[in-house]
Design a protein that fits this description.
This protein is an alpha/beta fold. Helices cover 25% and strands 19% of the residues. It is built from 14 helices and 22 strands. Strands 12, 13, 14, 15, 16, 17, 18 and 22 form an eight-stranded mixed beta sheet that branches. It has a six-stranded mixed beta sheet with strand order 6-9-8-7-10-11, with helices on both faces. A hairpin with a 4-residue loop joins β15 and β16.
């Protein structure tokens, strides 16, 4: 095999640097490769710089791939000065060098794939602004491109090249070599997120990963059966400047990318019932910057001394600019009404409903939920309208704070708001929970009690019953998957913000319990607020087209003060409930602050 020679002139700005020539000849074997020479002109403006030429001959192993391809622009990340000119030559003794020259590669157009238009800046005139402790970088123009992935052979070649120490960047992928029907491909983030939950929850490893085509078929079926048009939104971190969508499950590619977290940037990928998937890269973001904003956002929402302020708004708007604004115009153009977020690690505990565009909250425009991954979610049509609810709860605990409103909440749900049975305190035991479910196939289970999602293994997270803790790793033994429970509701949960394992437990609640959907809270909210939202949720569930819409309407009722406290009574949109004596003198009058309603999350199947 004869070598290929590539000449690149000044790919990055370098100051005070004299010409350096490096020649590397065939460090890796190449088969079935047509010898070519590719010349790429300086992609960035360079001032006062002597031309530098680097010659690389067949620096990576590629089998059966054309050489003339899309060339990613790589910019020198650091400024280099005062470097003495050197020349390094490495010979491959087994290959006779030869050079065949060609013209520089043509520009490849992928314009036939849709791109996300730039979103208009939100109007912040009506929102009070406050100084932040740490300024957040303003949003920048977005780089968008359609979604595509390499085939399995190309993924293996990329993985092999990354395993070589100090090897050059993987070769770019030619668009013409990709499958003509992108819908049959597996989106790599779907595979990686599925693997994370399977490993953490110790689920059976034989899982089928859904393709983009299957995802769109599911979304079309939901839209036709419910009248609500849904979309799946992936939020993840990717290497900056990555020109292709590489396989990033448990392969060496993921391990290499995780070693350089500082090079990450946020990426959004949207899959809708119709049309090609869309991708938006968010420049000037990385995991540290985004997680800092997420942490401060949750702190502002949950700080008890700030529940009568709008201190959370600047951060709510910044997160909106990163995570929604880049795709907002396209979501509206496609008529999307429901968003299911599938998020990367450390992004799974964001109260997405409370993100703000400067005019209103995200929940005012869409019903919102989350999935661990689509492959782990039971997306079959739900039939919760004709089922009964088993409501259980505890208002007193030996070593945890009391929940006095539970004495009102549990009987208000069953049988007053929804047909079913209710049990309180001493009757809320593990044995009775099992016996009631075995005796009757309740389609919904409501547990009004403390639940903690903690760091560590699933055995560290639990739901507090009257007589014991029901651990997360024990949920499968409850038999809620056969016959399957349509909806599990936990009305007083807490999960550690920014903790990967706690987020995996919370995000995997539905799949671990074997239920289609779950409603839980990201943090403990007030007892009165939980009572108000739960009563409103079940009232809305009777008429809502999907479960996520019922939750949305309940959240809006709190936001708009349709659920409030007046004269010792809790007023909902449809009725009034007496408060227990312990809460009769509360100074809370309304629940419009997002602390009270944005913690509630629909997990799993939102339809």
């Amino acid at each position: 095999m004869t070598p290929v020679q590539t000449t690149v002139q000044n790919p990055a700005a370098v100051s005070n640097l004299t010409p350096v020539q490096t020649i590397v000849q065939n460090p890796a074997a190449v088969s079935n490769l047509t010898p070519t020479q590719t010349t790429v002109q300086n992609p960035a403006t360079v001032s006062g710089l002597t031309t530098t030429q680097t010659t690389v001959q067949n620096s990576t192993a590629v089998s059966g791939l054309p050489v003339q391809t899309i060339i990613p622009i790589v910019q020198n990340p650091t400024e280099v000065s005062n470097v003495t000119p050197t020349q390094t030559t490495v010979q491959n003794s087994t290959i006779v060098p030869a050079t065949v020259s060609t013209e520089s590669p043509p520009t490849v157009s992928i314009g036939q794939m849709p791109a996300v238009p730039a979103a208009e800046a939100p109007n912040l005139a009506t929102i009070p602004t406050r100084e932040l402790a740490t300024p957040i970088a303003p949003s920048q123009p977005l780089t968008t491109n359609p979604l595509f992935s390499p085939n399995s052979q190309q993924q293996n070649e990329i993985s092999s090249s990354l395993q070589q120490g100090n090897s050059p960047a993987p070769p770019p992928i030619e668009v013409s070599a990709l499958p003509p029907n992108f819908g049959t491909m597996i989106f790599p983030a779907e595979e990686r997120f599925t693997s994370e939950f399977v490993n953490y929850l110790n689920l059976p490893p034989t899982r089928t990963i859904v393709t983009i085509e299957e995802t769109q078929n599911t979304l079309r079926t939901v839209a036709q059966s419910t009248g609500v048009k849904p979309a799946i939104v992936y939020i993840r971190f990717v290497p900056k400047g990555s020109p292709i969508d590489r396989a990033d499950s448990s392969s060496s590619i993921l391990r290499v990318e995780q070693q350089i977290p500082a090079s990450e940037e946020l990426e959004l990928v949207v899959i809708t019932p119709e049309g090609a998937p869309l991708r938006a890269r968010i420049p000037q973001t990385d995991r540290a910057v985004v997680m800092s904003a997420v942490q401060r956002f949750r702190n502002e929402l949950t700080n008890p001394v700030k529940r009568h302020t709008h201190s959370y708004l600047p951060l709510a708007q910044q997160l909106y600019r990163w995570m929604v604004e880049p795709i907002e115009i396209e979501l509206q153009a496609r008529g999307i009404q429901n968003l299911s977020f599938i998020s990367d690690a450390w992004l799974r505990s964001i109260p997405m409903a409370a993100l703000h565009d400067g005019k209103g909250f995200l929940v005012e425009r869409y019903s919102v939920g989350s999935m661990p991954s689509l492959s782990l979610t039971d997306t079959t049509a739900a039939n919760f309208k004709n089922t009964q609810v088993l409501a259980m709860g505890a208002s007193e605990f030996a070593d945890m704070s009391p929940l006095p409103a539970v004495k009102i909440e549990v009987p208000a749900i069953a049988p007053q708001e929804w047909p079913g049975k209710s049990f309180l305190n001493e009757d809320f035991t593990l044995a009775n929970l099992k016996a009631q479910r075995q005796g009757q196939a309740f389609g919904m289970i409501h547990l009004a009690t403390h639940a903690d999602f903690r760091s560590g293994s699933p055995s560290q997270s639990f739901i507090q019953l009257w007589d014991t803790k029901l651990r997360l790793d024990q949920l499968r033994q409850m038999g809620w998957h056969s016959p399957q429970v349509e909806l599990l509701v936990l009305s007083a949960c807490r999960t550690a913000v920014g903790d990967r394992e706690a987020e995996l437990g919370f995000g995997g609640l539905a799949v671990q319990a074997g239920v289609k959907s779950a409603v839980a809270t990201l943090w403990y909210i007030s007892d009165e607020g939980s009572l108000g939202l739960m009563a409103e949720f079940y009232a809305q569930l009777r008429t809502a087209p999907i479960k996520a819409e019922a939750l949305r309407q309940a959240q809006l009722a709190l936001l708009r003060q349709e659920v409030r406290i007046e004269g010792g009574m809790l007023r909902t949109s449809s009725r009034s409930l007496p408060l227990p004596p312990e809460l009769a003198n509360t100074d809370i009058q309304n629940f419009s602050h997002p602390y009270y309603w944005s913690a509630f999350r629909m997990i799993g199947n939102p339809w």
